[in-house]
Amino acid sequence: MEVRVYQDEVGEYRWQLRADNGEIFADSAEGYRHEGYAITTAEKLNPNAELVVDDTRRASPPRLQRLTYVGLAQAVRSIPKFRPQQGA
User: Fold this and answer.
1) What is the pTM of this model?
2) N or C: which end of the chain has fewer CB within 10 A?
3) Which residues of 51-65 are buried (b: 16+ CB within 10 A; e: fewer)?
4) In sequence order, what DSSP letters do the residues of the chain get, joined into one string?
5) With contact defined as beta carbons under 8 Å apart, do 13 and 5 qualify?
6) Looking at the domain 2-77, which fold is it?
7) Percent of the chain scored above 90 by pLDDT?
8) Are 33 and 40 in contact (CB under 8 A)?
């Protein structure tokens, strides 16, 4: 079983949970602005699935990147931090 994170046609990030035979049996049902949000949500909801980040739709050369825990930590650190505005 694997969870695949990908960028859709409008530039948002989504995830799909796939069985070993490739059949999709769960998905994010919504797009995320940042890849890190999709990765974090996919990991939380599917902790036992292998994480695969499919970046074939990006402008860079197509490739399939399998994340290790180090790669996941780097991806999560790339998520912009929420900082409340002062005096609001």
Assistant:
1) 0.61
2) C
3) bbbbbeeeeeeeeee
4) -EEEEEE-TTS-EEEEEE-TTS-EEEE-SS-BSSHHHHHHHHHHH-TTSEEEEE-TTSSSPP-EEE--HHHHHHHHHTSPPP-PPTT-
5) yes
6) Double Stranded RNA Binding Domain (3.30.160)
7) 12
8) no
Pairing mode, strands 50-54 and 24-27 = unpaired
Reading the block at residue 43, the tokens are: 């990991």
Q: What is the pLDDT of residues 12-41, one digit of tens each?
A: 899 999 988 989 888 898 899 888 899 999
For 51-60, the pLDDT digits (tens) are 888 877 654 4
Averaged pLDDT, 44-54? 87
Q: Which amino acid is at 28?
A: S
